[in-house]
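Intended use. Records like the one below are meant for learning the mapping from a protein sequence to its folded structure. Do not use them to infer anything beyond what is encoded.
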Amino acid sequence: MRIRFIKDKERNVQKCYNEYNYDVFEWLLYAGIGSFALAMTAWIFYKNAIVVFLAFLLGLFYPLIKKKSLIEKQRNILRLQFKDMLYYLGASLSAGKSVEQAFITVHSTLKNLYPGKKSDIVIESDLIINRLRMNENIEDILNEFAGRAGVEEINYFSDVFSVCKRTGGNLIEVMRTTSRMISEHIETKQEIATAFAAKKQEQRLLSLSPLAMIIFISYMSGDFMEPLFTTPEGRIIMTISLILIGLGGLISNRIMNIKF
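Structure written out for the chain above:
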């Protein structure tokens, strides 16, 4: 996997939400976090400078691991912003505006809702307006947006909109119903995520508790723990313990990582 840094002049191109491009500061931040965490873990379990150095180097690859969660985070942000866009789009269409006029109104509203640095949904709504002014098909625009977003709700909206346009259905009523259903779906996801937030925090604390216990015992009873750091048998025991703790963390994280 290759890391690509994003430059300021590249921010206005069409964004693919299935990818994540680090800027230099972000990469250094996550590389530093990974290196520090692995180096500290190696010191806690081995107290050996060579092992600590190797763990520090291994931590530099943490941005590659972190990328998956960052992609999911940017999708979740887009999903919440898309819910706001649907609400205002449905309101504009209900007021009798055309699709292009509705998106223009929505874009203006979203700029006020997300001031300062442009958010993803503001950029996307601006892109939709520009492409509509170039006489591109709204169905193609939404399908292309859904493909780049990789968000279930946007795909569903694009499909419903395309079917409605092709079959000549009541666009306003379909949009209103679809917007309400998608908004309820997103809100349900938010409620589930909020309900599990405390449990995830407990899981993280439990995963770190063995490390805290080793630090405490080493500090309070250094002579008792010394054979674990200096003898071959002790290092084998610490390695097995580290593997078991790591597996426990991975399993508990997989259990808590609910897809819905």
